[in-house]
Design brief:
There is one protein chain. The protein is 13% helix and 33% strand. By secondary structure, the chain is mainly beta. The mean pLDDT is 93.
């Protein structure tokens, strides 16, 4: 679990350490691929929502921007 000292802050780069169970269910194959492709790579933490989930922003290979929300335990600081 993160302490306030370890918790990444909005605007910082983080790494999605794994895709949360069920996140890919019912998504089109191209969306599933885009999300799995960013696992382990530095991506931007935009903010935490009211439920405490991290909003992550990243671009796919074609430069299209994507946003996903994950629980903080699925991310770690990139550096």
């Amino acid at each position: 679990m993160y302490t306030s000292r370890m918790k990444p802050k909005p605007g910082e780069l983080v790494v999605l350490i794994e895709v949360p169970r069920g996140m890919l269910d019912d998504l089109p194959p191209e969306d599933q691929e885009v999300i799995t492709d960013v696992v382990g790579k530095p991506i931007l933490l935009n903010e935490y929502d009211d439920a405490g989930r991290a909003e992550l922003e990243f671009k796919d290979r074609d430069g299209q921007i994507h946003f996903i929300f994950v629980a903080p335990e699925f991310i770690r600081p990139a550096y």
